[in-house]
């Protein structure tokens, strides 16, 4: 019965494949969520099935659901299962699902390491490809570290299909594991000259991406890329290379000069728009970087502008957009060239595409002049009226203001016009930029004295018609302009025709609905108006009007006294009391007007943004000192500009110093400066302050904002002193800048320009505005090329440089390969000890050798793996394939010579990343180097000499870098020996101690062998023994033969036709110091017992004088662990397995295990090929399977230092042996 | 390239490929935001827009929007080219592709994309090579699927073929 149900449900489940699911979802549009939840339930059922096909189908559906936004993270383990299927169909689905669903936080990723490694080395290129593709999406730092070496090997795969994928994914690996960059780079560089164009382009891609982040390390590749650029016909590659040059030229101007010609040629010749666009962009970048001190390249600029014009005129919106975009880049450095295309750009303002109009607007900024400003703005105003979307309208608004206000209103000839524009802009409904308009109004009214009369009249109208603005003010920001209007009317009330009316307008009950800060300004300025009214009527016999005004205030102010806003309330009540008092005096016919006016007397002047910084520091004042002992981060300096002044006072007296480093200070200064610059109400330096500063004037300077009270506390004189000094300082600076000429010119122009203003008055009035002009003017114009002090850090390239440096900077510091520690334990241990003291003696010759070894090891290994897959016959052929450029030389020499050859290609001055070249540099630095090397690398010495010649030429430049190189060398060589180590699932580099499964096989003075045994997944009777042979001698080892005395149970797999006692030829030779790995397949029958096999390695030691025959005996230890294969298992299946009762139990206790639980688990996983099924706190279930299908289940618990392992297996003796081995593992550590 | 999204005119996501690690939540947020922005654009508008610190390049093919996010310095035109190339590949593979092809064979669409782009970079610029790789991989798959099906999924064969 139960079986029937199960069967039925299986059928039903089988019925629903991906297509059905999709169809189902489409048919259940109304109750999609419900339908999907039933689907998910079904999928959960399917995932419990043993059938991998069913699981894959389920995972496929899940991937689809994931795209629809459903959480499928719970199925991560199932995805891993499907990934590890041996069938490509399922594997493909598994990897796809993983690439879509996995992210760095997915914990099962750590289980995939071995699976991925297996797939990477699969003989089927599509398995490898699918693994690489998947890995590119979910690679984590751990995976990157563990697999970096495998992927690096694949970079030399015979199939270009794999090579190109491996090359591309290396970029992701570098990002996750920067330490891999240095060791992998030489090979990556080789790939630039790969015979396959796909691989070549992949390498260009990767290096280009790397170089864009940190160009200076890739300058040395410039000649190579230059060659590629001139020879390549592939536009994709060309674009990347040109982009790369764009990144390099800022660092090496000479390169830019060289580039111009080929680039302009390309611009002329290419028909591909993308390439043209890239060239134009790069030419622009080059010209920007060349702009100083180079003969002008007006021809190139003209060419670019011409081409861009063609783009802009094109009917294709995309080209139009990009053309405008590139144009704006030119505008920054060559405004003249762009200005001649004004017609075209104005035309674009009418384009129906908003994004194009916005780009055109950007350009307009650079092409206005005094002549055309009004015309352009008029056009923009028309657009404002037409604009439908608020975003675009707001953009227009800010652009209008930007254009008009640029360079201190340089192009405005009539400010009445500008005020009218601003007033017109206030009619925009729903704009977010009320604040901006307000600040413009304030700025203009304050700085252009002649316009005040007009401005005040306009503002009075605005106030009178405030209801028009306040319609829906709560939402939009346009009511901000009332703030400005009220302030202007109050501050310059002497210009008001009818102050009484304005006063009335400001005290309407409706005002109470405005935002608090605006009301506060209203109240404060009502008081100013009151003073004006009093002043006006003073002396008249009839004091009626004045008294009426007082009465009005007394009637209306209580409304504000009740305000919820503290600021409003405080001001209102203060002023109310004042007015009441004045009323009393008025009734006694006392003249009060002068006294009331005195409250608000004084003139306000703008301060230059840089003014603050230019205040000379008084002697004895240490700005670095903290004012208060405990230095707090939230220093109030940053908060309000006013606080700065009040705080600076006490600094004179207090001279307790706490040191703050220069950077921090600079940063703070910068922040403060920016804040001040952005604060329109921060009072800017006044040129005429000397004249104006009588004591009361200072008091009202900061009135703009809100509090009268704060500035009142500030003692007037010191502030004015500061302003005076500041002004002097600024002027000196100006002189020094030799801007005199400009200044005069502008003054003249300005003078002429102001037609609307009355003559003599404007002369005087303009002075302050003009002087401020000059101060601020410098900012936009000189910002890029040559502003004195603080502008350079803002240089875009420099900023980019700093930013992008970061990822690679790390790699520079830590070139240690991850596997290194593991090797320390085993194969490279001796060598390590050997090399360390020598390094300390700076024997770079040794280092060099070491590095060579590494390189060859890498190379050889990659070949080795290929060999494993193919028959020995093919080896020669393959070598030729992977190293075609070396084809002439013998096989051995080939390997030795390859790096130097590539080094010769590089002729650029600095070579930070090129390890090859650096090794040569190191060699060069040691005079005795050749002697050392020659006997060792006889065959390659020729190359080296060649190299050295070259090096001598470059010696000077390299010297600088040498120290650097040494550093890297060491690390590189340290890490080298273990390149070959195939390590398993190491979880975390930091917390986990390094592990290696390679153990010593045998060793003598010539050779050292380490080995690891792994089960073969495909065949239940085979295990693979990987042996790393390391040549410890100074001689050449060749004709190595590996032989084992077979037992009944275990036999070495020999090629057909070989006798049972014949040895196997090790398929490589070992130059001095080199190690390489070979794999031998053994067949085993019973796997329940560990076993030892005796064997012998025979080899010929060939030195210059002689060659001797040597042999080395060893014992291969087949542990039971080596028959286990890491197999993932999910908890349901695990539970079933335990319930089945087929398994027999055993247990083990380990005392005194002093390591974190996850280390313990990782060790078991790593050394004994288990996988964690489930882990709860300090308890974990683990699973593994033998090559013959025995299930081994462990339940590991830990408390204190005791670990108890309960184990179950269907083969008790196997279990017993495995447990013994586990015990041994932990007794060792 | 940072990521690629395919969505329908109705705003339904049809394909997503992320080349930068992001949390699911962030991905959803970005997707929603971009789908809205792109769909709101008028047909005559250019294919580029600036979004956060990235550039979005999109193109509409029939009812499907192909949308890529690239970095500031990347080339918009080549990205359009990539999109177009991908569409051509889909077209060749499915034979005048339509949205339904991608919906029902979304894994194939991914496989093609993966052969074409890797880690956000174009890995194969030759259409022929991409299709060859896909065909061969499919061949590998089909053989196995077939034998698999003949054993277990007999009832499937006709529907799929």
Features:
heterodimer; A: alpha+beta; B: 161 residues; alpha+beta; 6 helices; golgi apparatus (chain B)
Task: Summarize the SSE layout with pairings.
The complex is a heterodimer of chains A (1229) and B (161).
Chain A: H1 2-15, H2 18-27, H3 32-48, H4 52-67, H5 76-83, H6 88-101, H7 109-120, H8 125-138, H9 141-154, H10 160-176, H11 181-191, H12 197-213, H13 222-231, H14 235-248, H15 253-269, H16 273-290, H17 298-313, H18 317-333, H19 335-339, H20 342-348, H21 354-367, H22 373-386, H23 390-409, H24 415-425, H25 434-447, H26 452-464, H27 466-470, H28 480-491, H29 499-506, H30 516-537, H31 544-561, H32 566-587, H33 593-599, H34 611-614, H35 641-653, H36 662-678, H37 689-692, H38 695-699, H39 709-713, H40 716-736, H41 740-753, H42 759-782, H43 796-813, H44 820-825, H45 829-840, H46 844-869, H47 875-882, H48 891-905, H49 915-925, H50 929-936, H51 941-976, E1 999-1003, E2 1007-1015, E3 1022-1031, E4 1036-1044, E5 1050-1052, E6 1064-1065, E7 1075-1084, E8 1091-1102, E9 1107-1118, E10 1124-1125, H52 1131-1139, E11 1144-1150, H53 1157-1168, E12 1171-1176, E13 1179-1186, E14 1191-1199, E15 1202-1209, H54 1212-1228
Antiparallel strand pairs in A: 1-2, 2-3, 3-7, 4-6, 4-8, 5-7, 8-9, 10-13, 11-15, 12-13, 13-14, 14-15
Chain B: E1 3-8, E2 13-18, H1 24-40, E3 48-51, E4 54-61, E5 64-70, H2 76-94, H3 99-104, H4 106-116, E6 117-118, E7 121-122, H5 127-152, H6 157-160
Antiparallel strand pairs in B: 1-2, 1-5, 3-4, 4-5, 6-7
Helix pairs in contact in B: 4-5
Low-confidence stretches of chain A: 635-658, 683-728, 738-852, 864-947, 949-991
> Which ranges of chain B are low-confidence, i.e. pLDDT below 50, for 5 or more consecutive residues?
144-161
Helix content of chain A: 55-70%
Q: Give me the secondary-structure category of chain A.
A: alpha+beta
Number of strands of chain A: 15
Termini separation of chain B (Å)?
36 Å
Radius of gyration of chain B: 17 Å
Amount of beta strand of chain B: 15-25%
Shape of chain B: globular
């Amino acid at each position: 019965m139960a079986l029937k149900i199960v069967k039925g449900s299986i059928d039903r489940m089988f019925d629903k494949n991906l297509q059905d699911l999709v169809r189902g979802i489409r048919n259940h549009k109304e109750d999609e969520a419900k339908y999907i939840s039933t689907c998910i339930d079904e999928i959960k059922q399917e995932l419990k099935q043993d059938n991998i096909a069913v699981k894959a189908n389920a995972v496929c559906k899940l991937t689809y659901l994931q795209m629809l936004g459903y959480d499928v993270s719970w199925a991560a383990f199932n995805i891993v299962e499907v990934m590890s299927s041996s069938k490509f169909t399922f594997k493909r689905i598994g990897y796809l699902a993983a690439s879509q669903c996995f992210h760095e936080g997915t914990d099962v990723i750590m289980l995939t390491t071995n699976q991925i490694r297996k797939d990477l080395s699969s003989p089927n290129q599509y398995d490898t490809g699918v693994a690489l593709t998947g890995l590119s999406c979910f690679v984590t730092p751990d995976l990157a570290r563990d697999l970096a070496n495998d992927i690096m090997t694949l970079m030399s795969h015979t199939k270009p299909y794999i090579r190109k994928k491996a090359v591309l994914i290396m970029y992701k690996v570098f990002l996750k594991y920067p330490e891999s960059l240095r060791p992998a780079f030489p090979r990556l560089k080789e790939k630039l000259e790969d015979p396959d164009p796909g691989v070549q382009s992949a390498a260009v891609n990767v290096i280009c991406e790397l170089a864009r982040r940190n160009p200076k390390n890739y300058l040395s590749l410039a000649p190579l890329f230059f060659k590629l650029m001139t020879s390549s016909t592939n536009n994709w590659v060309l674009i990347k290379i040109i982009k790369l040059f764009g990144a390099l030229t800022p660092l090496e101007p000479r390169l830019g000069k060289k580039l111009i010609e080929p680039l302009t040629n390309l611009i002329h010749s290419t028909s591909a728009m993308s390439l043209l666009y890239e060239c134009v962009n790069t030419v622009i970048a080059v010209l920007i970087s060349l702009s100083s001190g180079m003969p002008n390249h007006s021809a190139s600029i003209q060419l670019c502008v011409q081409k861009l014009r063609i783009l802009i005129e094109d009917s294709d919106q995309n080209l139009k957009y990009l053309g405008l975009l590139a144009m704006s880049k030119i505008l920054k450095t060559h405004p003249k060239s762009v200005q001649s295309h004004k017609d075209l750009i104005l035309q674009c303002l009418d384009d129906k595409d908003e994004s194009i109009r916005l780009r055109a607007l950007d350009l307009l900024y650079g092409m206005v002049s005094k002549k055309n400003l009004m015309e352009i703005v008029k056009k923009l105003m028309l657009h404002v009226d037409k604009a439908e979307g608020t975003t675009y309208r707001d953009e227009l608004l800010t652009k209008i203001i930007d254009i008009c206000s640029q360079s201190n209103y340089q192009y405005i000839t009539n400010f009445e016009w500008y005020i009218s524009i601003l007033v017109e802009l206030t009619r925009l409904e729903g704009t977010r930029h009320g604040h901006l308009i307000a600040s413009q109004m304030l700025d203009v009214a304050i700085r252009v004295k002649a316009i005040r009369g007009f401005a005040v009249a306009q503002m009075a109208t605005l106030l009178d018609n405030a209801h028009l603005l306040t319609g829906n003010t709560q939402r939009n920001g346009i009511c901000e302009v009332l703030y400005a209007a009220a302030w202007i009317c109050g501050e310059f009330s002497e210009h008001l025709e009818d102050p009484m009316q304005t006063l009335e307008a400001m005290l309407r009950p409706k005002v109470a609905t405005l935002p608090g800060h605006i009301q506060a300004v209203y109240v404060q300025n009502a008081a100013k108006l009151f003073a004006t009214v009093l002043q006006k009527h003073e002396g008249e016999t009839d004091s009626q009007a004045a008294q009426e005004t007082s009465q009005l205030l007394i009637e209306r102010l209580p409304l504000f006294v009740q305000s919820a806003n503290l600021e409003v309330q405080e001001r209102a009540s203060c002023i109310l009391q004042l007015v009441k008092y004045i009323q009393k005096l008025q009734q006694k016919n006392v003249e009060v007007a002068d006294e009331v006016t005195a409250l608000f007397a004084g003139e306000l002047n703008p301060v230059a943004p840089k003014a603050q910084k230019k205040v000379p520091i008084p002697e004895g004042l240490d700005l670095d000192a903290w004012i208060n002992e405990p230095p707090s981060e939230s220093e109030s300096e940053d908060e309000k500009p006013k606080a700065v002044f009040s705080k600076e006072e006490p600094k004179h007296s207090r001279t307790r110093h706490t040191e703050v480093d220069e950077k921090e200070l600079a940063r703070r200064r910068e922040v403060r400066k920016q804040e001040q610059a952005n604060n329109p109400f921060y009072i800017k330096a006044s040129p005429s302050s000397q004249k104006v500063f009588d004591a009361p004037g200072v008091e009202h300077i900061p009135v703009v904002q809100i509090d009268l009270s704060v500035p009142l506390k500030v003692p007037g004189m010191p502030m004015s002193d500061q302003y005076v000094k500041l002004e002097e300082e600024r002027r000196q600076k100006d002189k020094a800048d030799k801007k005199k000429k400009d200044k005069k010119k502008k003054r003249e122009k300005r003078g002429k320009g102001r037609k609307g203003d009355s003559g003599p008055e404007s002369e005087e009035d303009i002075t302050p505005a003009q002087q401020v002009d000059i101060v601020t003017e410098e900012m936009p114009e000189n910002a890029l090329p040559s502003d004195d002090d603080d502008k350079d850090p803002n240089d875009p390239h420099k900023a980019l440089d700093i930013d992008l440096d970061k990822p690679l900077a790390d790699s520079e510091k830590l070139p240690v390969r991850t596997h290194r520690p593991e090797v320390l334990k085993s194969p490279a241990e001796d060598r390590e000890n050997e090399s360390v003291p020598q390094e300390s003696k700076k024997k770079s010759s040794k280092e060099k050798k070491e590095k060579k070894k590494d390189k060859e090891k890498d190379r050889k290994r990659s070949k080795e793996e290929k060999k494993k897959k193919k028959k020995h016959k093919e080896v020669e052929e393959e070598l030729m394939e992977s190293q075609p450029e070396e084809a002439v030389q013998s096989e051995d020499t080939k390997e030795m010579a390859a790096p130097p050859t590539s080094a010769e290609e590089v002729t650029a001055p600095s070579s930070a990343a090129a390890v090859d070249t650096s090794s040569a540099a190191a060699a060069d630095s040691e005079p005795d180097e050749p002697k050392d090397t020659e006997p060792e690398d006889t065959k390659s010495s020729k190359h080296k000499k060649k190299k050295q010649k070259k090096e001598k030429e470059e010696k000077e430049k390299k010297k600088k870098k040498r120290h650097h190189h040494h550093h890297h060398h060491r690390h590189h060589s340290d890490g080298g020996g273990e390149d070959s180590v195939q390590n398993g699932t190491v979880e975390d580099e930091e917390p986990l101690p390094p592990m290696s499964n390679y153990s010593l096989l045998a060793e003598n003075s010539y050779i050292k062998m380490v080995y690891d045994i792994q089960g073969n997944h495909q065949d239940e009777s085979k295990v693979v023994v990987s042996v790393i042979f390391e040549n410890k001698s100074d001689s050449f080892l060749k004709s190595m033969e590996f032989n084992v005395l077979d037992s009944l149970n275990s036999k070495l797999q020999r090629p057909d036709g070989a006798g049972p006692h014949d040895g196997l030829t090790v398929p490589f030779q070992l130059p001095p110091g080199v190690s390489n790995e070979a794999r031998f397949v053994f067949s085993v029958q019973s796997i329940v017992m560990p076993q030892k096999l005796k064997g012998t390695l025979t080899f010929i030691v060939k030195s210059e004088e002689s060659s001797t025959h040597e042999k080395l005996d060893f014992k291969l230890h087949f542990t039971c662990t080596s028959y286990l294969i890491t197999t993932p298992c999910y908890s349901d299946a695990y539970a079933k397995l335990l319930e089945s009762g087929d398994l027999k139990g055993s247990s083990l206790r380990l005392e005194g295990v002093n390591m974190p639980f996850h280390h313990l688990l990782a060790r078991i996983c790593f050394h004994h090929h288990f996988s964690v099924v489930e882990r709860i706190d300090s308890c974990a279930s683990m699973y593994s399977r033998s090559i013959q299908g025995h299930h081994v289940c462990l339940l590991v618990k830990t408390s204190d230092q005791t670990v108890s392992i309960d184990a179950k297996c269907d083969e008790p003796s196997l279990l017993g042996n495995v447990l013994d081995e586990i015990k041994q593992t932990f007794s060792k550590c | 390239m940072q990521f690629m999204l395919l969505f329908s005119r109705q705003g339904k996501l049809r394909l997503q490929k992320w080349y930068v690690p992001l949390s699911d939540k962030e991905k959803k947020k970005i997707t929603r935001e971009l789908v809205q922005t792109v769909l709101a654009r008028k047909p005559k508008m250019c294919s580029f827009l600036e979004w956060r610190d990235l550039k979005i390049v999109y193109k509409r093919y029939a009812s499907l929007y192909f949308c890529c996010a690239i970095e500031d310095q990347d080339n918009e035109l080549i990205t359009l080219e990539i999109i177009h190339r991908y569409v051509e590949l889909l077209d060749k593979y499915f034979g005048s592709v339509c949205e339904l092809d991608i919906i029902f064979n979304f894994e194939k669409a991914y496989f093609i994309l993966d052969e074409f782009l890797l880690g956000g970079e174009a890995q194969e610029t030759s259409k022929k090579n991409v299709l060859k790789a896909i065909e061969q991989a499919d061949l590998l798959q089909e053989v196995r699927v077939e034998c698999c099906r003949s054993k277990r999924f007999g009832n499937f064969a006709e529907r799929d073929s």
